[in-house]
Amino acid sequence: MPTSTRSKESRHSDRTTGCYVYGIVPADVEVTSDARGLGDPPGAVKVVRFGEIGALVGEIRLDTSLGTPEDLMAYEHLLDGVAREAPVVPVRFGAIMTDTQAVADELLMPYHDEFLAALEELEGRAEYVVKGRYRQDALLREILSDNPEIARQRDEIRDQSPELTRNARIAVGEAINRAIEAKRDADTRNMVDVLTPHCVAVTVREAVHEEDAAHVAVLLDTERQAELEDALRELDREWAGRVNLRLLGPLAPYDFVVTRNQMG
Amino acid sequence: MTTAVQPASGGGGIDRPSSSSLADVIDTILDKGIVIDAYVRVSLVGIELLTIDARIVVASVDTYLRYAEAVNRLDISKDKETLPELMNDMQEGGAKQKTKGAIEAVGEKAHDFLDGDRESERVPRRKRREED
Prior knowledge:
The complex is a heterodimer of chains A (about 260) and B (about 130). Chain A is an alpha+beta fold and about 260 residues long. Helix content of chain A is about 40%, strand content about 25%. In chain A, strand 3 and strand 4 (about 55-60) form a beta hairpin. In chain A, helix 4 (about 135-145) crosses helix 5. The longest helix of chain A has 30 residues, at about 165-195. Strand 1 of chain A pairs antiparallel with strand 1 of chain B.
């Protein structure tokens, strides 16, 4: 259930609107008039520029709370739309400054060269995310086949009443869970090995579901997207019947931007 | 038992959506991207942020009991993997995937729908506040 967090009393408490910051882009990026930002109704998005960089911003009311599913989707879809056409440094969700002048003066000017260097590195590149999810039956059969002692334990408790076998069932489940984690590690390493030759960078993400087989983000030259898809098709053949693969992208490079001084 | 003809690619096919679902977005944006606090102080504005439960996997006794039950349900005669088994899996698996997609919904309680037919163990993780 979503809960709300009230930030500390703002020193700008007389304001009614703020300037939401989505990301940093090269100054020559133009936002089309149909780009939709956060808020209800969705706000317009524009570019504040300084030197050779700009910030994607939108005005929002401060008397509402932020973070509905619609807000999250709008935030990502905007950044991913930009990432298809231009490099962008995404800002973590929830960044609001007082106004566009502050964006230029306090964000873009002092860190101009830093952001420009990051954008130059990201030129022509985008993030892709690969998710693999086990088919449960195939996964469990593999585990039983690889681990005959688990199969034996399972057979022993199978026909006994649940009340009598609780501890034994927990033990079996725990053994299975360990085996799943080991399999996830091995399959993730396999995926990383398959993808690395085609990518600028690869990073492993945390599993988000018990039956995740792999969860990997890659940074790729977008002109090599077909190579990535071919490599994944190979993996999909190898894993036929045991893992379902899902590919997202091109996305903004969420996993590949680092906050200065590693404060993130 | 029918045997489906294998598609030329041999695999189940890669899911390739044109844009991220809510579940995908939540996995991505909650703790990624640069943190604006490290760059600006004076003109940062506080606002009420809804926190969304981020999904991470935490195994528990309930998890273990569910796995034990799942292996109990596995048909004894199918314990050895054979090719026809894999093809049966693929046909079943296809239907399951469609159901999951249909259940995903955007709304205040979206996170309740994120895992379709199965609850994953989830530990609520507080989102960082904008101003401290």
